[in-house]
Amino acid sequence: MLGFFTNGTFSLASGEFLVLFPVFLAGYCLLSGKRRIRNLYLLLFSLFLYWKLSGIYVLLLIAVALTDWLLGKAVRRPDGTPGKWPVALSVFVNVTVLAIFKASGFFSGLLEMLAGKAFPGIESLIIPAGVSFFIFQSISYVVDIYRGTVNPVKRFTDYLLLLSFFPKMTLGPLVRNKDFIPQIENESVSVTREDIGEAARLIASGIIKYSVIARCVGMLIAGPAFSGEAGTAGSIALLGLYAFAIQIYCDFSGYTDLASGVSLLMGFRLPVNFNAPYKSATITEFWRRWHISLSSWLRDYLYIPLGGSRKGDVRTYINLIITMFLGGLWHGCGVSFIIWGLLHGVALSVHKVWLALIPGSHKTGEGMNPVLRFGGVLLTFHIVLAGWLFFNAPTADRAGEMLVAIFSDFNLQACLQFISGTLPAFALMLAGYILHFLPSSLNRQADRLCSGGGIVFCAILILAAIWIALQVGGLLLPASGAGLPIYANF
């Protein structure tokens, strides 16, 4: 337990957090009717957890919050009209901070070329956890004030809580300021029986998806397949792709479920971030189901300001490609991420062209003939799969090798031998896909079951999920932080 007070070990699925959170929650409930003290208590706990994860970078989080809180207040001129310079300054400062950490390797190479010597300190710069998420959140706050969507937050501590709220601070979801600020400003906390039931279902399912399915499938199938340790056959590469597709979904959506469940227990509701994305029949539908908070942020704060679809077809296609290209750079300044972003940008543009050329075609697949929808789901899934190949491959060259092997050296026998040695993980991969394609109505039924069972039933459900994860060996993450979610790297 003393290890919890050293930095570098925080995760919503870590044993230390699961032990400490009930203690924190008890104190939080005692302060439920005292907004200022409650928010300060929550803020200090959030900052403590961020310090555990990123150490001294907690000061960067505070500095970003203070800068944009002050700029947010400066947006309105004395005559009440919005001024653009605070918005421009906020975007410049935040993008600069993000670029320093995200493109440290690029800048190191550029300086080395100009100065004729290496700068290893820049290249090895450690990226603060969740920096992309709190930077994007902070930019949207100042822009929203300029647009008149929200009013400036009165207290700096409340705005710092908006950025550092611990369930979402490392990998979102990116909340809507107009939806989340009122929750911070609520005078009292109200958690219903239904909220507790939904929270229990989210936490239990999150633990299973994140700590069991994603962990085992990634470690035993996707990792060896992408690294080449499992063999170079194309069939193994394809299996690794299918494995990574469910790994990244269960990893990210599972952790988001955990975040949403923990938030509900404190009276906060986070937005839905995943809606069975592999059920999508078009690439447009996929981006309305996958990482919904990021795709909507890119749409509202990048695609629409670029002109969106208001300036003709050609400009629309260019805007889509630019938006997804920058979305790729947001994940990292590497060739693989650029290819991933461009692939999705081109796919979205091609779908726009298809909609214009084929009368009666469907934008999101809703109302589509069942047979056509099935074909659309298969096609869309494999387009997404091609993107995951570049997203997860250690280098663009390795992605190319895997792609060539799939079409030139399939060797099914090698894949069957690999599966025979990893049957439990293969079974979990199949279970992940089955769970993903189950009707969404089952979640509502599970929520009602948990609510009807009461607090004791909810507690037993969560403990059962923890026990299962412990048996599989994936819940109590090592103190080194090696078990952090995939998206914690972005």
Report on this model:
The protein is mostly helical. It has helices at 15-30, 35-54, 58-74, 85-102, 104-115, 120-123, 131-147, 156-164, 177-184, 193-227, 234-265, 283-289, 292-303, 313-331, 335-357, 370-392, 396-408, 412-421, 423-437, 441-472. Residues 1-6 and 476-482 have low confidence and may be disordered.
| Structural class by helix and strand composition | mainly alpha
What is the string of helix and strand elements?
A: HHHHHHHHHHHHHHHHHHHH
Shape descriptor reads: globular
Largest sheet: none
- What is the strand tally? 0
Q: Which regions are unreliable across 5 or more consecutive residues at pLDDT < 50?
A: 1-6, 476-482
Q: Average pLDDT across residues?
A: 87
Radius of gyration over C-alpha positions, nearest whole angstrom = 23 Å
The quaternary state of the protein chains shown equals single chain
Give the termini separation.
29 Å
DSSP helix fraction: 55-70%
The total of helices stands at 20
Residue share in β-strands: under 5%
List keywords for this structure.
single chain, 490 residues, mainly alpha
